[in-house]
C-alpha cells in the first residue's frame, strides 16, 4: 500500500500534495526497496501456505483419532505437540510480516526529503481517514 501511495503521489499534479519532485536516485532507491519487500512478502506467503498445509494435516489427524473412539496417549501428545509447533511457527510468521512492514516504512521514510516525508504522512493520514468512513 505504501508503494502504491508513493507511485500515485509522484504522478499527482496537485500542488503541495505531490511527490513529483523526487529525483531519479530517490526513485531508484524506492524501486530497490520495493523489490526487497516483494522478496520478503513472497517468503512470508510461502511460509503461510506451508503452515496452512500443516494445520490441515493436524486437523485431519485429530479427526481420525477422534473417530476411532479411544485416544491413545501418544496420539494425544502428538496432537498437542503439533499444535504447539503450529503456534510457534505462526508466531514467527507474524514477526516476519511485521518486520517487512517496518522495513517498508523505514525505507520509505529514509529516501525522501523531510518535506516529502511530511507530504507522504499527510497522504497516509488522508488515506486512513477515507478508509474508516
TrEMBL record:
Any idea where the DOG1 domain is?
1-133
Record's signal peptide: none
* The entry's keywords: Coiled coil
For this entry, list what GO says about its biological process.
DNA-templated transcription
Under InterPro entries, the record lists: Seed_Dev/Stress_Resp_Reg, TGA_domain
Coiled coil region boundaries: 23-54
Q: Which PANTHER family match?
A: DOG1 DOMAIN-CONTAINING PROTEIN (PTHR46354), PROTEIN DOG1-LIKE 4 (PTHR46354:SF2)
Please report the name of this protein according to its UniProt entry. Answer: DOG1 domain-containing protein
